[in-house]
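Propose amino acids for all 319 sites.
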C-alpha cells in the first residue's frame, strides 16, 4: 500500500488555500493534470474524497477538514524539527527576524525562506509605522510593510527600502450586491453602504480612501473598525463593505473585486537596515518575497484577471 508523504499534505493544503486545483497547481509549480492525478492518489490512500467540486471551486469534505487539521500540525512539527536540528548542528545558522504587517504573501514567503540556511523568526505587527521603529531599533532584521499616508523621508532614515509591488486596492463585498457590475464595483455606488475599516492607527490608506470617496461624490459612512477577517466577513455578509487586498480569497458568498478606474493603490515595501552586513542573505530573502508575491496573485481569480488585462493594456503591470 502506498504511503502518505509530507509533499502530499502540502498539496492538499495548497488546494484548500487556493480554492481550486488550477490555482494550487500554479502555486506549487506543477501542471493541473499532474496535481489532479496526485490528489486522486492521495484520496485513494486516505479512503475517501477530500474536496467537493462546485462551480465556484472546491471546498473540503468532512474527511478533508479532518486531514487538513492534522496536516497543519504535522507540517508545523516538521518545520520546527528542521529548525531545531539546524540549531543543534555544528554550523548553527544565523537567526533572521522577519517583521511584517498582515499581508497575504506571508504563508508562501515563510515557506520560501525554508530554503535558506537561516533560522527564521517572524513578528506580526498591524501598523507599518510601528514596524519601521522595530526595524530601526534592531528588534527585527527585515520588514514587509505597506507605504502609509504621511510617509516622510525621516521614517526611512538609516534603512534600505525596496519596492516589492504596487497594486490596486479592491473592495470586499457580498456576492450579488447591487453595486457589482460585470465583476467591477464603482466606488460611487457604495455611497450608501456601511464601511468596515481597520482601526485608525493601523489604516495606512485612510487619507487616500477619504480623498477617493470625496472624488466619487460622497463621504463614507464608517460604522465598524476591525482588522479581524472573521468579524469583517460576518459584517460584509450583512451588507457592509470594506477595502481588501487584491489577492484576497474570501469565503463562499463574499468576493474581493476591483474598483472601477482603480482609484486606490498601495505599495508593498521590503526594508532592511543600511548597516546590516548580510547583504547577500537579504538579497535572497527579497527574492523569496518576490516569488511569494507572484504566487499570491493566483489566490483571487479577479486579481489574476486584472493583472492580465492591465498588462495587456500596454501600461505597467502590478509589479
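Proposal:
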Amino acid at each position: 500500500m502506498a504511503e502518505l508523504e509530507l509533499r502530499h499534505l502540502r498539496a492538499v493544503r495548497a488546494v484548500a488555500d487556493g480554492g481550486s486545483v488550477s490555482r494550487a497547481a500554479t502555486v506549487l509549480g506543477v501542471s493541473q493534470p499532474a496535481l489532479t492525478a496526485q490528489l486522486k492518489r492521495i484520496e485513494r490512500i486516505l479512503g475517501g474524497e477530500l474536496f467537493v467540486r462546485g462551480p465556484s471551486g472546491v471546498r473540503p469534505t468532512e474527511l478533508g477538514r479532518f486531514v487538513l487539521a492534522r496536516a497543519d500540525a504535522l507540517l508545523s512539527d516538521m518545520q520546527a524539527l528542521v529548525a531545531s536540528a539546524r540549531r543543534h548542528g555544528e554550523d548553527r545558522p544565523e537567526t533572521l527576524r522577519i517583521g511584517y504587517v498582515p499581508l497575504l504573501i506571508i504563508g508562501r514567503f515563510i515557506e520560501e525562506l525554508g530554503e535558506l540556511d537561516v533560522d527564521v523568526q517572524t513578528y506580526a505587527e498591524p501598523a507599518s509605522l510601528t514596524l519601521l521603529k522595530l526595524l530601526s531599533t534592531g528588534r527585527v532584521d527585515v520588514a514587509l510593510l505597506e507605504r502609509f499616508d504621511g510617509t516622510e523621508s525621516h521614517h526611512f532614515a538609516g534603512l534600505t527600502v525596496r519596492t516589492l509591488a504596487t497594486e490596486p486596492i479592491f473592495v470586499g463585498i457580498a456576492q450579488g450586491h447591487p453595486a457589482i457590475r460585470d465583476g467591477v464595483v464603482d466606488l460611487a455606488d457604495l455611497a450608501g453602504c456601511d464601511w468596515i475599516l481597520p482601526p485608525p492607527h493601523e489604516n495606512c490608506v485612510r487619507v487616500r480612501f477619504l480623498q477617493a470617496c470625496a472624488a466619487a461624490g460622497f463621504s463614507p459612512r464608517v460604522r465598524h473598525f476591525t482588522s479581524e477577517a472573521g468579524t469583517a466577513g460576518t459584517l460584509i455578509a450583512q451588507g457592509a463593505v470594506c477595502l481588501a487586498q487584491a489577492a484576497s480569497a474570501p469565503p463562499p458568498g463574499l468576493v474581493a473585486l476591483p474598483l472601477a478606474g482603480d482609484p486606490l493603490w498601495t505599495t508593498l515595501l521590503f526594508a532592511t537596515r543600511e548597516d546590516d552586513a548580510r547583504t547577500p542573505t537579504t538579497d535572497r530573502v527579497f527574492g523569496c518575497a518576490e516569488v511569494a508575491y507572484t504566487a499570491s496573485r493566483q489566490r483571487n481569480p479577479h486579481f489574476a484577471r486584472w493583472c492580465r488585462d492591465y498588462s495587456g493594456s500596454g501600461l505597467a503591470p502590478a509589479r
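The longest strand covers residues 159-174. Confidence is low (pLDDT under 50) at residues 313-319.
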